[in-house]
Write a structure and sequence with these properties.
Layout lengths: L5 E4 L6 H7 L4 E4 L5 H9 L3 E3 L3 H4 L12 H6 L5 E3 L10 H6 L3 E3 L6 H17 L1 H10 L17 E5 L3 H9 L6 E5 L5 H7 L2 E2 L2 H7 L2 E4 L13 H6 L5 E4 L8 H9 L5 E4 L19 E3 L8 H19 L13 H12 L11
Parallel strand pairs: 1-2, 1-3, 3-4, 4-5, 6-7, 6-9, 7-8, 9-10, 10-11, 11-12
Helix pairs in contact: 1-13, 6-8
Keywords: Amino-acid biosynthesis, NAD, Oxidoreductase
GO molecular function, one term: oxidoreductase activity, acting on the CH-OH group of donors, NAD or NADP as acceptor
Pfam families: 2-Hacid_dh, 2-Hacid_dh_C
Length: 354
């Protein structure tokens, strides 16, 4: 007889997720971050875990304990699958999960439009000095308006680091500006790049030639620390750095030095090493920085779409089918064995077949 699966979550981006799951034979339990005893009791019996974002867990004491770390994996022997809320999955230790026979999924796709639009918004804000002009107008006296002279996007060179769903959509959004688009992404081939109208280049060439550098890549072992002092030093003094990726992809201290030293013109930041960033973060004191608190993917539409994708993916998982956004397919054989052992049925999909 199949056991009733238990799913633990911290919050849904939209109530529609709860509505969808209410129609399924799944025991859904809310994780209370500020009640660790109850939280661990729920997790230790859970078969699925919808992991909270790093920013969300920061509101609780020792919030990092709720991330899918090796410690959490070891403490939850019945756990079969963990999923992140969005495309990023740095809140999950994929290797630890794979070793334990746990499937790891993300939710790439539903939030791409929102993040890409935000990335474009930061680029326009910096180029047209919108936030700088707003500050000048509010603090007054205004002084010489020519000091707020910006630049146009038309015909400039855009460098995109990471041509996934977000980077690809950003390229499309920038098409009306007739920008030359350079891309660094070792997982994209030349044929695909030509089809999208972009040019694949090495990272060094991208930073040297671009007027706007956009980081839209995930945080992985390969991308951690990808952008540091050497890359900032190679950028044009008139260039702007924008990131909607993850904070640890770039070196914050090196970025600060580049900004105060005039080696780059400005930065647009939606992500930080520590989230939310401390109010004394030196980057927040700079007039040539436009900053937002990791809200690029937070729109009404994206929240709804992510919630639907999240709920339907959990339905797929507990129905014994391969989830559409499985990040560690190599785990499948062991996962199937554990699924049978823990829930009493074997997944219906064959290994490697979606």
């Amino acid at each position: 007889m199949k056991a009733r699966p238990r799913l633990v979550y911290e919050r849904w981006t939209d109530p529609v997720a709860g509505d969808i799951l209410a129609e399924s034979d799944i025991d859904v339990v809310k994780l209370e971050l500020r009640a660790p005893e109850e939280g661990w009791a729920a997790l230790e019996s859970a078969h699925g875990y919808q992991v909270a974002t790093r920013t969300d867990v920061a509101c609780a004491a020792d919030g990092a304990q709720w991330l899918a770390t090796p410690a959490l994996v070891n403490r939850c022997p019945r756990l079969l699958a963990v999923c992140s809320a969005g495309a990023g999955y740095d809140v999950i230790d994929v290797e630890a999960c794979t070793r334990a026979g746990i499937a790891v999924c993300n939710n790439s796709g539903p939030g791409a439009e929102a993040v890409a639009e935000h990335a474009l918004g930061l680029m326009l804000d910096l180029a047209k000095k919108i936030t700088a002009a707003d500050r000048a107008l509010r603090t007054g006296p205004l002084g010489d308006r020519l000091a707020l002279r910006g630049t146009q996007l038309l015909g400039k060179t855009l460098g995109v680091v990471g041509l996934g769903a977000i980077g690809g959509r950003l390229v499309q959004l920038c098409a009306p500006f007739a920008m030359e688009v350079l891309v660094f992404d070792p997982y994209v081939d030349q044929a695909s790049a030509r089809d999208r109208g972009v040019t694949l280049v090495a990272l060094d060439e991208l930073v040297e030639r671009s007027d706007f550098v956009q980081l839209t890549c995930p945080l992985t072992a390969e991308t951690r620390g990808l952008f540091g002092a050497r890359q900032f030093a190679a950028m044009k003094p008139s260039a702007y750095f924008i990131t909607t990726a993850r904070g640890p992809v770039h070196d914050e201290a090196a970025l600060y030095d580049a900004l105060v030293g005039g080696r780059i013109a400005g930065a647009g930041l939606d992500v930080f090493h520590e989230e939310p960033p401390r109010q004394d973060n030196p980057l927040l004191r700079l007039d040539n920085v436009v900053a937002t608190p990791h809200v690029a993917g937070i729109t009404v539409e994206a929240a709804h779409d992510i919630a639907v994708a999240t709920a339907t993916q959990w339905q797929t998982i507990f129905a014994g089918r391969i989830p559409p956004r499985l990040l560690n397919p190599e785990v499948w054989p062991r996962y199937c064995d554990r699924f049978l052992e823990i829930l009493g049925v074997r997944p219906t999909a064959s290994c490697g077949v979606r």
